[in-house]
Amino acid sequence: MNKEVQALKNWLSIRTSYPHAESEWVFLSRKGNPLSRQQFYHIISTSGGNAGLSLEIHPHMLRYSCGFALANMGIDTRLI
User: Fold this and answer.
1) pLDDT of 12-45, one tens digit each?
2) Does residue 43 share a domain with residue 77?
3) DSSP states of 19-60 as a string?
4) Is the pTM of this model over 0.70?
5) Which domain holds residue 2?
6) Same structural domain for residues 24 and 43?
């Protein structure tokens, strides 16, 4: 998890230059507002296309992949 924690710390230090940087929301739009569901969907699907993935990516896939990763680590699937 150290890479993930460091990535979040890096983002939070960059975010200080955003309007409303003191917001409790982790991810903000360029205007300083919380990302909407539609904005998040657009970011994820565009990133998948930019990465050259052959299938259409959507945010729920992050949940699937996290669940598979946890199951592969031996976490009880009833807890996931």
Assistant:
1) 999 888 888 889 999 888 888 999 999 999 999 9
2) yes
3) TTTT-S-SSB-TTSSBPPHHHHHHHHHHHHHHTT-SS---TH
4) no
5) 1-34
6) no
